[in-house]
Amino acid sequence: MSRRLEIRPRRGLPVVYVDIDGTMTHSRRRGWGRPKAQVILKVRDLIARGYVVYVWTGGGAEYARRFCARHGLAGVAGYLPKPNVIVDDNPNLLPARRLGRLSPEEFAEEEFPWEEA
To answer: Structure pTM?
Structure first.
């Protein structure tokens, strides 16, 4: 089921944004629901390996902060609401063209191809 992402690495540490509802939990509704242990373990692993991990959610920054505290996700770089608009000078900064996207299941299984050697 795993697929390789075609992403060119940036300089420095890799940056990963992870959603909560429906990604780290089995529910797409706010209120967290049952956690997806494999995904949460993968987030912990990435943080331990030096990835810069932000947790973002439609529920807002405080919602993300509380979720991480409850589920032992220490070392998260930041907690963010999902953006409505992205303002950037790069016209190719669109999810379909530039950003890699994985489903929660792919994320839990994926070996990240952009690790620095």
So the answer is: 0.74
